[in-house]
Structure formats: C-alpha cells, structure tokens
Amino acid sequence: MWTVKVVSLGVVALSLSLELLFWLFSRRRSERITNKVLFFPSEVACVEHIFSPTLPHSHVCSLPHGVDTSFSRLLRYILSACSSLDLCLFSFSNMDLSRAVLLLHSRGVTIRVLTDKVYSAISGSQIGVLRKAGICVRCDVSAVHMHHKFAVVDGRTLITGSLNWTLTAVQSNMENIIITEEPDLVQPFVKEFCRLWGLNDSAQYLSSVTD
Amino acid sequence: MWTVKVVSLGVVALSLSLELLFWLFSRRRSERITNKVLFFPSEVACVEHIFSPTLPHSHVCSLPHGVDTSFSRLLRYILSACSSLDLCLFSFSNMDLSRAVLLLHSRGVTIRVLTDKVYSAISGSQIGVLRKAGICVRCDVSAVHMHHKFAVVDGRTLITGSLNWTLTAVQSNMENIIITEEPDLVQPFVKEFCRLWGLNDSAQYLSSVTD
C-alpha cells in the first residue's frame, strides 16, 4: 500500500507541475502579445530624450520634459523597429515622425513608404524629404485616395487607426491608434501592404502607361 | 504490483484528460475571440438580402446578388447588435449604414451617435435623419475635429479603422477596418466613448455657455 501511495502521489505531483507549467506558458504568451490603444490629441511635450536618450534633460526648449504622452509612446513604438518598417500613409507631414523614420533609415532599418499621390505633393509633406534621404517611396497611382494610416514594424507589430501623420492630428484632433501583435490582425495588413506595394511599382506603372 | 500499475495508470489517464480539457478550453476561448480585418474599396453588390433575409433573391436591382463583400460583412457586424451600438464617427453619409442603424433602432437597440459638428451639417450627412428618427445624437462641440471612425457593438465588439461611413470610403478609397473582441483593445474605446459622450452632453454644454 505504501508503494501505491508513493507512486500515485508522484504521478499527481508530476501532473500538477505540468498543468502549472502549461498555465504559466499560456499566460506568458498572452502577456507577451502587445495590445495597446493610444488616444489623441496628445499632450504637447519635449520628445528630444526619445531621439537622444543619452542627452541630459536639457532646457533647450520651453516644453515640459520627461512627460509620457500618447505621441511619445507612438514614437517609441516606431523607433523600436530593428529590421523593417512599412508605412502606408494617406498624409505624412509630422516632422518628429519624419525624424524618427530618417533615424531608423540611418540605422540600416529597411523602410518602405506607400503614400497618396495627391497628399504627397501638398505643402509641408515629408515625402520629398524621405525620398531625398534615399528611402524607398511609392505613390499610389490610382484615381482614388489611398486613405490608410498604418505602419508595420519588423513584420510583426501593427500600428493603425484614424491618425494621419500630421501635426494637427497629433496635437489637435480626437484620434485613435491601435498597437497590436495579434497575428490575425497583423498578417492581413502585411499581405495588403505587399499587394499595394506591388501594384504601385513605378517601373510597372510607367511601363503600362507607355505601352 | 498490479494495484500500483492500475492506480498509476488511472492517475496518468486522469491527468492527460485534464490536460486535454484545459487545452481544448484554451483553444475554444481563443477561437471565440473575433479578430478580423476588412479592406476597401468593397466590390459593389446588392445588400438587400442582409436587411431582408427572408426575401427571395429578387431582381429589383442590377447589382450582383449573393456576393460576400467587405461592405456586406461590415453591415452584418453592425446588424449583429442586440442591446447597444455606440458610434463615434467623423463623417456619416452612407445610406446603407444609416439604414442599418435605423433598423437596429426599430428593434429596440440602444444607439448613441457622437459625431463631428462641422461634418454633421454637410450635404448628404445622415445625422439629421438619425436624429429625426429619435436616435440620441451628440455633436462634438470643440474647435477641433472629432476624427474617430469607430463603433462598439453590445459593449464588446470594436469596429475601427480608417474608413469614414461614406459612399466614397466604401466604394472608392483604399481603407481598412478592424473588428475585434480583444478586451485590451475594446475596453479603452468603451471608456473613451463614455468620456467623450459625457464631455459633449449638450445640456452641460449649453449650461456652461450661458453661465
């Protein structure tokens, strides 16, 4: 009877341990998946420390320092890109976001920008700046608006919402942004970006126009 | 030894069954949570069968029938509301979406519409139609744009993205919509809707204006 008890208890202990490990694994997995929401307008604050973390909290500007805002979080998510950043943006005139993209480009991150043809040419658009820096930009060539406002970071984090990448959207309008790593949400956007990127290959377009 | 083996096998079988049940439960739970993405422009097709499922596939219109499109899916998600529908929309002029909201209202679904003041007054806006039908509408009274484009169905399903509720957005532009039940994504929108709804209480607003 003693042996029966020992063996049974051993098996129960093993089973419970497995159960616990499985539960911990499931919990850690769901904790790892980012699902965040940011609302705008964002409080206006200095973002210099995000671009230059080693710099002391200087007083070169009159804005509040060290404040965590929706915009500073958005910048951090963008700047977290290690290998790639795909941008599909209706309008892009925000200079801090442009600076973040240029910084990633200088770090060797592969950047692709797909944007609306009409809005890429308006005053204050950062599209020309990105192009001049050598970033690969394609303009949607269709007659309709490319109204998306999404980014895919490293092929696994989706940033999407109502927010155009403009100063008005960030500092004035009521807007939202979702940051998610849910594969069911991210993968369709990755696929759609590739589809639109291929559709708007300027070489193909020029070829079809001259045919 | 025979008893030891029987008891051990029994415990192992019980343990494995528990493990299986736990796995099935986790899987069913993640399967239950909706995470969908819809892209636009949507193929133009007849949506009459969505409003009147009992009607035969009639030929009262020349559009393709029985086609599953991004727009028909969006309509179905909206019409799935059983108890409440909260809409926070920059622009609302799409007549099929307006019809869906009116239908829900006639079914007794509690509807709240928060919209941008300027865009609620433009030609073709459905806001006046909803108001006349007795639906509770509040216009954002701030000087900036209420640029959101989201809906919360029954307090648990979020529909959000770049798509304004207009015909151009649905049939022409490149747009996206996310439909999700992820609590980490839905709850912030529920909270933000309540905050904005409270902020734009016309009684409070009138009171503060006349103070």
Automatic annotation (TrEMBL), chains A, B:
InterPro entries reported for this sequence: PLD-like_dom, PLD_domain, PLipase_D/transphosphatidylase
Q: Which GO terms describe its biological process?
A: lipid catabolic process; meiotic cell cycle; piRNA processing
Task: Spell out the molecular function terms from Gene Ontology.
Answer: RNA endonuclease activity producing 5'-phosphomonoesters, hydrolytic mechanism
Q: Where is the PLD phosphodiesterase domain?
A: 142-169
Q: Which GO terms describe its cellular component?
A: mitochondrion
Keywords of this entry: Hydrolase, Lipid degradation, Lipid metabolism, Meiosis, Membrane, Transmembrane, Transmembrane helix
Keyword Protease assigned to the entry: answer is no
Catalyses which reaction(s) = a cardiolipin + H2O = a 1,2-diacyl-sn-glycero-3-phospho-(1'-sn-glycerol) + a 1,2-diacyl-sn-glycero-3-phosphate + H(+)
Protein family per UniProt: Belongs to the phospholipase D family. MitoPLD/Zucchini subfamily.
Q: What is this protein called?
A: Mitochondrial cardiolipin hydrolase
